[in-house]
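go over whats below:
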Amino acid sequence: MIGRLNHVAIAVPDLEVAAAQYRDMLGASVAAPQDEPDHGVTVVFIELPNTKIELLHPLGDNSPIAGFLEKNPSGGIHHLCYEVENIAAARDRLLAQGARVLGGGEPKIGAHGKPVLFLHPKDFNGTLIELEEV
């Protein structure tokens, strides 16, 4: 069902500093920050030959990333994103097997302009999983 790893998302306390580390220290291609108000985050994508890194920073007071950073002030891995061909079919299959889909189960448009869903970390070994339709 899942395809390739689309990205690894890392919550960061300082987006500018984190982007500079990837750009200047690691020599990576770093995109401009983009606000995602529907998800309460500002993101910066780091392009790698085989996947992407998504740097996440809180956007607004109700950002889920703010809570994550309160518990992890230095930041850390927030979620893994896998590609799926049909997000509705993937959701239905997961629900039928007892997985919990966050946010009421309806896909939202993600940072790449494609439908995404998040799966409860307690159902996947403590890891928040994002599915993105390709």
Remarks:
- The chain has a mean pLDDT of 97.
- Helices lie at 15-25, 64-71, 87-96.
- The chain has three helices and nine strands.
